[in-house]
Write a structure and sequence with these properties.
This protein has 638 residues and is an alpha+beta fold. The protein has helices at 156-163, 169-183, 274-316, 324-362, 428-431, 435-456, 474-483, 493-517, 545-557, 582-587, 621-637, and strands at 3-5, 10-12, 17-35, 47-48, 54-55, 58-59, 65-73, 83-89, 107-111, 117-122, 131-140, 143-153, 226-227, 234-235, 390-397, 406-411, 418-421, 462-467, 531-539, 563-569, 589-591, 596-600, 607-611. The strands form 4 sheets. Strands 1, 2, 3, 4, 5, 6, 7, 8, 9, 10, 11 and 12 form a 12-stranded mixed sheet that branches. The protein has a 5-stranded parallel sheet with strand order 18-19-20-17-21, with helices on both faces.
């Protein structure tokens, strides 16, 4: 699996013979330096660049180009080399862009010799810089790793080389640029997407080329999602928005005014249908927001680390601890910190604004399965003829963009059960809610999810069962009971629990046997072949050991044959079972009845805040939708 890195993130390299591929919207200079244990470049022979394109274990391009492939053999490097830093710089000359903020964000991929991607990194957040340390390969305790760097230099190639300890950096940078100028006429633009899906980079609209940068060719397919450098827009296309064959073309955005980003369009992603394009677009928005916030947090961490280092150096000199010199050094360090964090915040605010603009266009265009309860699409609801590809079960947001909500979509049919956590120890919001109120909210959340599932499935293709051992959920269950959409009355008491579990366990067993024998036509005529949802309230109340075992069986085996769990429970109530129920909780997708930041993003380390979907205050949209579902079911029985 490819690791999509953000600034500061590292990844272990599984092999030592590699290619480093660079894609950009305009010609760039690619090179690399070799560093010792301290990262110092000892002399010019440790630098690979267009004027001297080969060093032991490393070979780079001889000219500026929009597409590069650097060959690396880590085993062939000198023993004293512990670091390889990949450098990118803009060529100088008439008509060439003077800063990375005026061109599309470069994309770097570390691949095996067969082209398999190991790690990728998009260099976002650049502005006045004309040179950048893109990434580094480094050896730690005998293991080679790759780290995303993305450190830009406004002083250009000379400043970047000087920062690595290169003597006579200015003269070396000038000789490199002279060698580049002689071959610049041969530089090429990125090729279109290859049939095997190889990525290309292209600007999102007219503003992406900036001032002075050559325009990129019009791509046949969207390029990977990225946040452009300051001065450019967010590209909403995403690498996974693709199908096995060319889909119908997505809608075209209206032309953008000069200097302004292209206007977002609902369905701006690949897919065979509008629903599929919207699904892909929503997940693209999720990853765009994740990367934008990751870049911001990384920039803030870098600024704070840099300020701490500068203050440490100042305080380590006894002469600077007193007098005006020390005060000036501290003020300068803080000023640099404020400047870096301010620029990062400006870039984040711009990205958030553009994502909010896309969200404002996408939300009204969503079908019922993807829409919140307040969306007008529910007022024109009709029972569908086929199931959608996904269902919205809540919203996600991050603290840096709390006003921007990303729909949380799960694929249908459900691949795992859902657990609505009614415990008060889950979060601060839960702890601040009275216990009875929290349990009521949890059951209301479960009922709303069941109503959405009933609404997006065709009539008679989805059945809902309820286990409410103590009858404590009569109030929240009223919409389902009153509409008559349940498979039977809510089961209560130990006998009711045993009856429902036995019925669904039998169904799982029979369907599994029919599938294994290839005899689906031999199923009993009284078997309900519709998808089944079991809502369980107040677990483990009313459950004996046999019932607990059956519930675990349904959680493990049910989804593959159309039986799904929707648990409303407080895990603290099951402490008497010890670790026996740990597999049950792990098999379920946990959501909460109140806002809670428990959903982790393993790629960038974010903790996303989940919020359940609720009908607007005073609205009866849920009851109206359920009434239409019940009417369609009655019509089907006649």
């Amino acid at each position: 699996m490819t690791a999509e890195l953000v600034r500061g993130q590292n990844h272990t390299l599984p092999q030592t013979r590699l290619e480093i591929r660079v894609s950009a919207g305009s010609p760039v200079v690619a090179g690399a330096t070799l560093g010792d244990e301290r990262g110092t470049v000892r002399d010019a022979e440790w630098i690979a660049h267009p004027a001297s394109h080969r060093v032991p274990g490393l070979e780079v391009s001889r000219q500026a180009a929009a597409d590069h492939r650097l060959a690396v053999d880590l085993d062939a490097l000198p023993d004293s080399v512990h670091r390889v830093t990949v450098l990118l710089a803009l060529p100088v000359g008439p008509g060439q862009p003077a800063r990375f903020g005026a061109v599309a964000a470069p994309f770097v991929a570390v691949t095996g010799l067969d082209g398999t991607e190991i790690a990728t990194f998009t260099l976002t957040g650049l502005d006045t810089e004309s040179a950048v340390s893109a990434l580094e390969l480094y050896r730690r305790q005998g293991v080679w790793k790759v780290r995303a760097v993305g450190q830009g230099y406004a002083a250009g190639l000379a400043g970047m080389l000087a920062d690595q300890g290169v003597a006579e950096a200015a003269e070396l940078a000038a000789s490199i640029q002279e060698a580049v100028a002689s071959g610049l006429a041969r530089s090429v633009t990125p090729p279109p997407r290859a049939p095997d899906g190889e990525r290309v980079r292209h600007p999102a609209g007219p503003a992406a080329s900036g001032d002075g940068g050559p325009p990129a060719p019009a791509p046949p397919d969207p390029a990977p999602a990225r946040t452009e450098a300051p001065g450019g827009p967010v590209n909403y296309a995403h690498p996974r928005r693709q199908t096995s064959a060319p889909p119908p073309p997505p809608p075209t955005a209206p032309p953008a005014a000069p200097g302004r980003p292209a206007q977002p369009v609902a369905g701006d992603a690949t897919g065979w249908s509008m629903d599929e394009r919207l699904y892909n677009q929503i997940w693209g928005m999720f990853e765009d927001l994740a990367r934008a916030v990751a870049a911001y947090r990384s920039a803030v961490d870098f600024a704070e680390s840099r300020m701490d280092q500068e203050l440490d150096r100042t305080l380590s000199d006894p002469r600077s601890r007193i007098g005006g010199a020390g005060d000036r050094a501290r003020e300068e360090a803080r000023a640099k910190h404020d400047e870096l964090t301010g620029r990062a915040r400006e870039a984040l605010e711009r990205d958030l604004a553009q994502l909010a603009a896309e969200s404002a266009v996408v939300e009204p265009a969503l079908p019922a399965a993807y829409a919140g309860w307040g969306n007008p699409v529910w007022h024109g609801y009709r029972v569908p003829m086929e199931i959608p590809m996904a269902l919205r079960i809540g919203d996600l947001h991050l603290p840096e963009g709390i006003g921007l909500r990303i729909p949380l979509l799960v694929r249908l049919p459900l691949e795992r059960g859902i657990w609505v956590d009614s415990g008060r120890t889950a979060s601060e919001a839960a702890a601040a809610t009275p216990g009875d109120r929290l349990r009521t909210l949890a059951m209301e959340t479960a009922v709303a999810l069941a109503a959405r599932l009933l609404a997006v499935y065709p009539a008679d293709d989805f059945s809902v069962h309820v286990i409410d051992p103590a009858g404590s959920a009569a109030g929240p269950l009223a919409p389902l009971v009153d509409a008559g959409v349940l498979a039977g009355p809510p089961a209560s008491g130990a006998e009711g629990v045993a009856s429902v579990l036995a019925h669904l366990t039998r169904r799982v067993d029979l369907v599994q046997m029919a599938i294994r024998a290839g005899a689906s036509d031999a199923l009993p005529p009284d078997l309900d072949t519709a998808e089944q949802l079991l809502i369980v309230n107040d677990f483990p109340h009313g459950f004996d050991d046999r019932a607990v075992t059956q519930l675990r069986y349904l959680a493990d085996e049910g989804p593959s044959v159309g039986v799904h769990l929707l648990m409303v429970a407080d895990r603290e109530d099951t402490r008497a079972y010890g670790p026996v129920l740990d597999p049950l909780w792990r098999s379920l997708l946990r959501i909460t009845p109140v806002a809670d930041d428990h959903l982790a993003d393993p790629w960038v380390g974010h903790a996303w805040t989940y919020e359940p979907l609720r009908a607007p205050q005073g609205s009866r949209v849920l009851e109206q939708v359920l009434a239409l579902v019940a009417e369609a079911r009655r019509a089907g029985y006649r």
